[in-house]
Amino acid sequence: MKKGPLTPKGFRDITPSLAKKRREVIGKIAEVLEELEFTPLETPTVEFAETLKGKYGEDEKLIYEFTDRGGRKLALRYDLTVPLARFVANNLNVLSPTFSRYQIGQIFRGENPQKGRYREFTQFDLDTVGSADVAEDAKVIAAGIVAIRKLGLTNAQMAINDRKNFEGLSTQDIRAIDKIYKVGKESTEKRLLDFIEKVKPTGDLRNIFQILESKFGLKEGVDFFFDPTLARGLDYYTGSIFELKPNGKPEDQTIGGGGRYDNLVGMFAGRTIPAVGFSFGIDRIVELLP
Fold first, then answer.
1. Residue 258 domain-assigned (yes or no)
2. Angle between helices 16-35 and 134-150 (to 10 degrees)
3. Can you tell me whether residue 205 is helix, strand or coil?
4. How many domains is the chain built from?
5. In a domain, 264, yes or no
6. Residue whose C-alpha is closest to residue 253's, from 182, 173, 152, 176
7. Is residue 5 part of a domain?
8. Which of 50, 78, 82, 187 lies at 20 to 30 Å from 125 by C-alpha?
9. What CA–CA distance (Å, rounded) separates 225 from 212?
10. What domain range includes position 160?
11. 8 Å CB contact between 129 and 95
């Protein structure tokens, strides 16, 4: 029997049964976010290349860039955060004093496909822009935990750290620490292992943990935990950083991540606008559900 053309490597069709399952997951997460007063937003799939470049560090090479017939240098969006920053910079009236939004959209990255990782995938983001108060960090973290509980992943926990814990370290050292559970402690320099053993939650993290417990009824060691090895790769994080782990272990494949990024929106707006956000990995989450 003759078959039709194949899809490009890292791209796939979503079958009806899988599409239905994804829609159910997205709907349940959206319900949680709207209860927490996040509002929906949509931005274009295509941006000017210069809007995206210079925001992702070494991962910038994964951006899909192209030139259109008018000679304009364009790119497929790499995430939903930089487009949010562009939107806020062009619509500062939405800050009153904060703007909390969620967005679902397709993301494109030219990386090596593997299990649970594709070159086109769906992100589900939530962010609060306009406040430096760690209460907003706690709200975003709580939203991620409450939503994943609603989906039935009862063992999932949020790993949390603070980028300030790495001040004074080289970029190379930070990346090595972030990969400890991937390469193994035996392949990590002893000085870095000694370093992370001494790292403790910062004052901001202690405040976040207190709010998670007192306001949202979440428990350390059950719903979230401190992970001194967590660094996250994107260069724009400035404070708290967090990743959702399906079995509550640092070595788990991440099914969502985020953090505070107080300088990114200001790159476009010309003034400091603090922000904190989180992104669900919809494809990975769906794969974990029965």
1. yes
2. 140
3. helix
4. 1
5. yes
6. 182
7. no
8. 50
9. 11
10. 16-288
11. yes
